[in-house]
Amino acid sequence: MTQQITRSGLDEAVKRSPNKWVYLFSEGNANMRDLLGGKGAGVAEMTNAGLPVPPGFTITTQACNAYYDSGKQFPQGMWEQVLEGVKIIEQQTGKGFGNQENPLLVSVRSGAKFSMPGMMDTVLNLGINDETVKGLVKLTGDERFAYDAYRRFIQMFSKIVLDTDPRDFEHVLDTYKERAGVASDAEIPADALKKLVVEFKQIAERQSGEPFPTDVYTQLHKAIEAVFASWNNKRAIDYRNFNKIPHNLGTAVNVQSMVFGNMGNDSGTGVAFTRNPSTGEEQLYGEYLLNAQGEDVVAGIRTPSKIARLQQDLPHVYEQFKEIARRLEQHYHDVQDLEFTVENGRLYMLQTRSGKRTAQAAVKIAVDMVREGLISEQEAVKRVEPIQVYQLLLPRFDESEKEKAEEEGRLLARGLNASPGAATGKAIFDADRAELLGKSGTPVILVRPETSPDDVHGMLVAKGILTQHGGATSHAAVVARGLGLPCVAGSEDIRVHEEERLFRVVGSDTVIHEGDDISIDGATGQVFAGIIKTVDADFEKEADLKKLLGWADSIRKLGVWANADYPRDAKRAVMFGAEGIGLCRTEHMFMEQERLPIVQEMILAETKEERQAALDQLLPFQRSDFKGIFEAMVNPKTGEGYPVVIRLIDPPLHEFLPSYEELLVDVTRLETNGQNPQELKEKRKMLEAVGVMREMNPMLGLRGCRLGLLYPEINIMQTRAILEAALELAREGKKLHPKIMIPLVGHVNELKEVRRELEAVAKEITAEAGTSVEYKFGTMIELPRAALTAGQIAAVAEFFSFGTNDLTQTTFGISRDDAEGKFLLKYVDGLEEPGTTERVKILPVNPFQTLDREGVGQLVRMAVENGRKANPDLEVGICGEHGGDPDSIEFCNEVGLDYVSCSPFRVPVARLAAAQAALVGGEKDK
Ligand code: PEP
Ligand code: MG
Predict the structure, then answer these.
(1) pLDDT digits (tens, 9 = 90+) for 456-478
(2) Which ligand is nearest the CA of 584, by number?
(3) If you compute the radius of gyration of the chain from its CA atoms, what whole number of angstroms results?
(4) Whole-prediction pTM value?
(5) Helix 608-632 and helix 596-604: axis angle, to 10°?
(6) Residue 742, Cα to own-chain centre: how many angstroms?
């Protein structure tokens, strides 16, 4: 009854406001993540499911956005609604906020739509002051507990809200411990804590320049503001940039009645996953600390116990928790990451959210859940990030090299296998330096006593993370798993001395200094001195992954082909599931040692005859190259071959010759010393030839089909090699489908002429052979003019392949070689705004990695439409690097390409991404 009256108080306050800014937990649900954030939606759902959740309310993300829009003012009516919300918590708990007899304490926690672990702020134990602390003593009969809660509150509030230096507090705390002759915070006696509280308030006042707020509503007001503000702190912005989370979502704020895990040994706090987030195994996985508050677990200061031990410590709590975990997983059909607190033997749930997991776990959990009937195959396909598939296939340490390292005594330490993968790099002991070195390309392993959100910028660029403290749910472990970085956490075998920039290995004289190479194995938790060689993962043994990709294959509409220049690449591509070769760059074969001199002879030939003689020598090489690739693409049982697209020579010829500048230096040197007249003569000749071929803009110069028009003999040799190889195999009963691709066409006449010449040669060759082979001629669309006139070009082409590398260069007018790693990086990272810490982003992403839908994409869309109109049988694919990028694959699916072609290692990624694109496309069509 009373609750009803107070509810209407909130309803009345909402009526007077322009918006509903505050939702009681009982008013929300799991579908309201946009408005209530992940945490708010999770506690709402748990509340409504009847689980034990301390009462509270959520201030919406809209309120946060309105706060920023109005120049950091609470939106109209919000505070009034907050006050009504507090009244309701008071009624539900029977306690009073600021009440001296029976005080209500609350937590004020951030909670955005997407989980950003540890990036934003939280204040616990709010509502405590010199008066209410006495009530707390009376209520609990535990003076030590009450003053410990008070000192924790001052410490946290000062750091988060008053922005004071936390080290001053820690320093004083250490002095108190020393004085009391105790090792842990939990042992400081009540009397000392009382004095500590006084001293803490003085520090806060000194540092912030104002008295520490005693009014509980002022405390609440300031804490809510601080949580709003933490949405835009540096580490939160860095994290969102890295994870591509939009900056305009805002954070919700959850105000919740406190429950205390530090009320003795029948109290505690912990975090647990419903399945192992590292391996995916079906077992409760997590840890807890008896007699502790939440931040003690996450900060990794005390080493927690494994969750299974709770069965002995508090058996009925363990059983209840296990049952709740099972129910929540069944309810959400996904692995949950749970936070709980036990207060005097009573279990409370504080959070449930979908658990972050490693690539290996993601795949195993998705496949297991289909087996268990929890999710459909389609859902399983949606559950795994394509990039995780890539991580799964990342190199691991070569086992024999690792054994050798062990034999050599280089195994330094073991820790927790917190996030899998192998990493080698220089040990670096602070995040700033790690960031600096990592960004300049030096492989770095960040080594810390434990990590905190302040280390994230260093973690983002590190190859791996090693910590001395902390468990499987410590900050280091959670963030590393999210980033797909190898991590060894809580290694008790090392002592990190960050000021001296070194770590010592316990029980030995070994010291690793900053800059020394170390290797960590996140799958086993081992730490080695020196470098260990890595090897590729064994795809054939990844049974779950293969099953998942099999489901993806039955969903996707796009074909997945691979770019491969050598038979070994083609074999690997087939193993990964490629259904064709979408690009074979033939010039790579020209670069090989034994061939390059012949290629140079051909280029430098003064007569047609000389050139032909060189080409005649190249022909058998090319024929055997193509035969090798074709063979790799033939099904040995049926003799049927996958399609293979072979591109005729593309790069400017000078790329096969020595550099002009180097030659000039050599000639000058030989002229000066006069020692080797023969060499001088040869070098002069080469210099002259290279000089003639030099271009100001080779990317836009004599290359692609233009070369073939000027030197048709090269194209003819290549066409002959392709067809002769296919014919040889045809005689063995193998059916090949070579597709001859003419690059860099800008005008239809270029294609017409090259095709006319080559078609005549092809006819001649097949006639001579007396056997037939099915071949096609097509072109790349990699210049804007080709895209704009695709209708004309399609009339002369049997297939198109979008060369989006060149198409992006030429559409933007940005030379990739000159821009990437230089100004393009700044465009994407943001240009510094003088006098501020703001950065102005020119481009959202690197357009050479993710297809620019607005510009380049328009050309692609138009070319597909006009090309198919002119030639309904036209086959259309993509072979630029975008063919392996999930976002670009979604676009390719949308515009109706027939296939994407990418590097062999990306093939599994593309299979999954193509299936997800089909599912998204299907949903959009509904
Ligand atoms: C392209 O331009 O997209 C392409 C595949 O060709 P290359 O990268 O060899 O220029
Ligand atoms: Mg190209």
Answers:
(1) 889 989 999 999 987 766 778 86
(2) 1
(3) 33
(4) 0.80
(5) 140
(6) 36
